[in-house]
Specification:
The complex is a heterodimer.
Chain A: H1 3-50, H2 54-94, H3 102-125, H4 132-157
Helix pairs in contact in A: 1-2, 1-3, 2-3, 3-4
Chain B: H1 2-11, H2 20-66, H3 70-110, H4 118-145, H5 157-186, H6 200-247, H7 251-291, H8 299-321, H9 323-326, H10 328-364
Helix pairs in contact in B: 2-3, 2-4, 2-6, 2-7, 2-10, 3-4, 3-7, 4-5, 6-7, 6-8, 7-8, 8-10
Classes of the chains: A mainly alpha, B mainly alpha.
């Protein structure tokens, strides 16, 4: 088996296991509490507005917005890691049909694996740091995945792999 | 038909009755078709009605704020929470059952690369499929079971069994992962006749699927770069406007904010649904490209089903995106797109079942 396929299959499997473990941990220890905090802060904000405590109401709505910001990204991270892992393994099975040199295919596989790992990691880090760093990491990871997949599409379109 | 026969003879060994590959292929396609049917039924009978009721409760909560009735506001949010849980669990069940179907198909393709005995593969396939059914069914039931008889404060029995289902899937993946690692370390070269299929239907699905995935990625990147932050800022602004105007007893403005909020939720939902569906359909097409030798239909019919699947895969996300502008007509066309994908899957599954029947009859013959 070529190095490119090994990278994609082993990397994809490791990533899907990581994604599922993250999802299980999240469902058990974080999600319910997060949803309660979201719903609670939103309802409390409206109740405080009904009592004309407007500063408190706006503060509660701000907590809601912050919690939702984190929740959306945490759920996205789980689904993107899992989805990208399945894509990596699928490409690993089909990679012989990508008509590039073995060296280029290995580089392409490394690019896809790095992008699939870093893009959701950047999104997850946004829940800890709202600065530009995590956004840049997520964007760079996404760019790697998109560029890699576009190259794979070109490789598929070129037909059979050399020597096959 | 001749090519199908040739392939079948070559692969009969790997597609034995109750074998891991057969279980995963049939189970995987059935899971995906069931998940999509659930999604279509949910979209037609639950989604819009549920959103309408959430809007009614939000309007009532705004009225309660204006009337300085905090208890009524809280009651309406409790009702909204129930509606959101109802919607969220249905969406989760739909998404997970399809994702597990993809995983099953992928693991079916990976079988030659797993250094495991057939018995171990079969047991792992059973564990995977059991978890793949248990998790979404349990998630579907969360809204109805609630916290009845639960030993925990905030997690009900349905959530517990769902988590157990997830654990079963993880165990199966870990087992297959160990087999893959053993294979990679062994240096043994595995060959799979499935990957040699170059039929037109397989090429259509491979090329179409790759393009769908790429289109989905580009759309997702655009959404994340342009719309996501703006949507979050707009949501916060609208909610603050809602409570401000309601507290000032300006009900017309407060109700307008509720309408704006509903529109924003719609914008977010269609963008995310289009993004996820186009990628999922792309993955499905690529997976099915490799399984075409198991679809015992004439090449013409395999091409027809491939075309129907690809057409439905474009129609659904495109018309989901158009739903905000064109309304329910676009929603109906999107649902029809989903139905096209389901039909194509059932058509292909019929071919796989014919293949298994033919294989078993051949084996049973003296």
């Amino acid at each position: 088996m070529s190095a490119a396929r090994k990278l994609l299959l082993a990397g994809g499997l490791a990533l899907v296991l990581w994604s599922m473990s993250f999802g299980l941990w999240y469902a058990l220890f974080v999600e319910h509490q997060t949803l309660e905090r979201m719903g609670g802060s939103l309802a409390t904000g409206f109740a405080q507005a009904a009592e004309r405590k407007m500063d408190d109401a706006h503060a509660s709505l701000a907590i809601y917005a912050d919690t939702e910001f984190d929740y959306v990204r945490q759920v996205d991270v789980h689904s993107h890691w899992g989805g990208l892992a399945i894509l990596l393994m699928l490409l690993g099975v089909a990679f012989e049909r990508v008509r590039f040199s073995e060296r280029a295919r290995t580089a392409l596989a490394a690019m896809l694996l790095a992008g699939s790992s870093l893009f959701p990691l950047g999104v997850l880090l946004q829940t800890l740091d709202h600065g530009a760093g995590p956004k840049a990491l997520g964007a760079a990871g996404a760019a790697l995945v998109i560029t890699g997949l576009a190259a794979v599409a070109v490789g598929f379109a070129r037909g059979e792999a050399p020597g096959r | 038909m001749a090519s199908v026969e040739t392939t079948r003879t070559a692969e009969g060994r790997d597609f034995a009755p109750l074998g891991a590959r057969r279980m995963l292929v049939v189970g995987g396609i059935a899971l995906i078709a069931a998940g999509m049917l659930l999604g279509d039924l949910f979209a037609v009978f639950v989604l819009h009605q549920n959103a309408g009721r959430i809007g009614e409760h939000l309007t009532a909560a705004v009225d309660a704020v204006a009337a300085e009735n905090s208890q009524a506001a809280l009651q309406n949010f409790a009702a909204i929470g129930g509606r959101l849980e109802n919607r969220g669990t249905k969406v989760d069940a739909h998404a997970h059952i399809i994702a597990f179907g993809y995983l099953a198909l992928l693991l079916a393709l990976a079988q030659p690369y797993l250094a495991l005995s057939e018995g171990a593969r079969r047991h792992l396939a059973q564990v995977l499929l059991a978890g793949a059914v248990l998790l979404p069914v349990s998630v579907f039931l969360i809204h109805y079971v609630g916290l009845q008889y639960s030993p925990l404060e905030s997690i009900g029995w349905a959530s517990i069994t769902a988590d157990f289902g997830g654990l079963l899937v993880i165990v199966a993946c870990a087992g297959y992962g160990a087999g893959l690692v053993r294979h990679l370390l062994s240096g043994v070269r595995a060959a799979d006749p499935l990957l040699r299929d170059r039929s037109r239907s397989a090429r259509m699905l491979l090329a179409g699927g790759t393009l769908l995935i790429l289109a989905g990625f580009l759309h997702g990147a655009y959404y994340a770069a342009v719309d996501l932050t703006e949507h979050e800022a707009r949501e916060s602004r609208i909610l603050n406007t809602m409570v401000e105007r309601a507290a000032q007893k300006d009900l017309a403005a407060a109700h307008q904010a509720v309408a704006d909020y509903g529109m924003l939720q719609g914008e977010k939902a269609v963008a995310i649904a289009a993004h996820s569906h186009i990628i999922e359909f792309g993955l499905l097409a690529v997976l099915l490209a490799f399984l075409q030798p198991y679809v015992m239909l004439s090449e013409r019919w395999r091409q027809r089903w491939a075309a129907v699947l690809l057409a439905g895969s474009v129609v659904l996300p495109v018309f989901v995106l158009a739903e905000l502008r064109l309304g329910l007509v676009a929603g109906g066309i999107a649902d029809a797109g989903g139905l096209m994908v389901i039909l194509a899957l059932v058509g292909m599954l019929t071919g796989v079942v014919r293949y298994t029947g033919s294989l078993d009859a051949g084996k049973a013959a003296p």
